[in-house]
Amino acid sequence: MKPKRAAGTTLRSDRVIVIGAGIGGLAAAIDLSAQGFDVTVLERAATPGGKLREIAIGDVRIDAGPTVFTMRWVFDELLQASGTCLDEHLTLERADVLARHVWQDDQRLDLYADVERSADAVARLAGADEATRYRRFCRQAQRTYRTLLEPFIRSARPSIASLVSHVGLTHIADLWRIKPFATLWAELGSRFRDPRLRQLFGRYATYCGSSPFEAPATLMLIAHVEREGVWLVDGGMVRLAQALERVGKANGVEFQYGCEVAEIIIARARTTGVKLADGRTIHADSVVSNADLSALGAGLFGAAASGATTRLPRSTRSLSALTWAIVGRTRGFPLTRHNVFFGADYRAEFDAAFARGRLPAEPTVYVCAQDRGGRVDRTADAERLFCLVNAPPIGDRHSFEPGEVARCEDRTFERLQRAGLWVERTPQNCRVTTPNDFERLFPSSGGALYGRSTHGWSAAFARQRARSRIPGLYLAGGGTHPGPGLPMAALSGRMAAASLLADRVSRPRFHPAAIVGGTPTR
Q1: N or C: which end of the chain has fewer CB within 10 A?
Q2: Are 339 and 102 in contact (CB under 8 A)?
Q3: Which of 245, 261, 241, 263 is nearest to 253 (CA)?
């Protein structure tokens, strides 16, 4: 079958190698193949997805990576640019309940996609005045998102100057209103009186693997992103990676799994291909690395390639996690798809992870009940659960003792029991993943799952861009701009592809942003 390609493109002889079949690598491969490049994706795992992965317990497979699917428009645009659409490849259902939140003494709050339903829930929990403040917060979150969408999220090279230029002098007040220099925790304290609401919305910092006490207030935009749509993927989140792989194959992309890259070859000051662990060499005109930046900087792809990006100190790492994938019976608490059981001392959790490198004494527990929350709950006997607590990113320099993990596990499931949730756990039905395990999966990261932390107002601007310091080598993934998470990783891949195209194209009217905002143009 002849590969489908975007209208107006021509077949090229240029060969591009993409290292890693994570979401960023898949997005880059789709865009480049649609533009006529000969693309080969090399992935050391057996399946696509990267951090978007599954764990098997018997015959049952459980999502064990990202579990929240938002910003659907990113994937709609990606597939439309390749002549297809997301609905042809995935069955998606929009969630009614965004998440169920639980505090001590079984105090609960459901957030909904509908602002007024959420405001009513806030009023029942914390009073009418807090509901009014919640509505104001929603408007501020929307304003923040709209202010940052074009000049930061979609921009390949954002800066304070570009933000000011984009909004213009007449709207400079809008930029100031999004509180770019305040911390998220401080800003939430000025907006809510109830500490539970401050804790709820402060949790959005963990979406970037960061502490709400250090992350910028601009992360409140996540509240608006979730209200625009949290989607449930029929069959599990890994179906997204499988769908992108199918689109890439339809464009002619070659995928090689179980294929480990040992070295990115640099000759005459530019990238010329890769050397594999089995000794083979594959020549290419360009390489897109979707591997962790930490692995690149540590020299795992060769000493020459380690200079492609600045090696980040360990102090800038984002959070890791301690997780449990379970197939078992539950009783008591009425779970929905996404559930958060808050610990009593939020600041202590982040101090433990970032300041002391320890597992939390009183953890906040996230539970994804993967058979709940859709049109039909499929929980007849045993159900699939993915439980997570925040952990320090020290998997490469500290081996957690079995007793240390066991103590945290006891406290985690005691927290759930205090809320009325009993979970069946046995050695046969439960798989534990520690920061040491994440380090083995993603070497040199220490188990950090989100690249660098977003601490301080300038951290987001310090993320690595798509162009590396070495000509012909481009970078994508959650560790690069615009940041972690499935849609951001996809945008990073599109930016890498756009940068590569802009460096190759001879016609001066080509603009790399065209491939990020919609159908590639030339």
Answers
A1: N
A2: yes
A3: 245
pTM of the complete model beyond 0.90:
yes
Reported as a single tens digit per residue, the pLDDT across 431-482 is 999 999 999 999 999 999 999 999 998 888 889 999 999 999 999 999 999 9
Encoded amino acid at 488, one letter: M
Distance between CA 197 and CA 178 in Å, rounded? 19
* pLDDT per position as a tens digit, 80-116: 999 999 999 999 999 999 999 999 877 999 999 999 9
Provide the residue ranges of all domains of the chain, joining segments of one domain with +: 15-52+69-86+236-313+457-517, 114-228, 319-441
Residue 421 DSSP SS3: strand
What whole-number distance in Å separates Cα of residue 210 and Cα of residue 448? 11
Q: Give the CA radius of gyration of the chain.
A: 22
Three-state DSSP state, 413: helix
Who contacts 441 (Cβ-Cβ below 8 Å, separation ≥6)? none
Q: Give me the CATH topology for the region 15-52+69-86+236-313+457-517.
A: FAD/NAD(P)-binding domain (3.50.50)
In 3-state terms the chain splits into helix, strand, coil percentages (rounded to 5) of 40, 20, 40
The residue assigned the tokens 């078992």 is 328
Distances from the Cα of 152 to the Cαs of 125, 213, 247, in angstroms?
A: 35, 22, 28
| The residue type at 158 | P
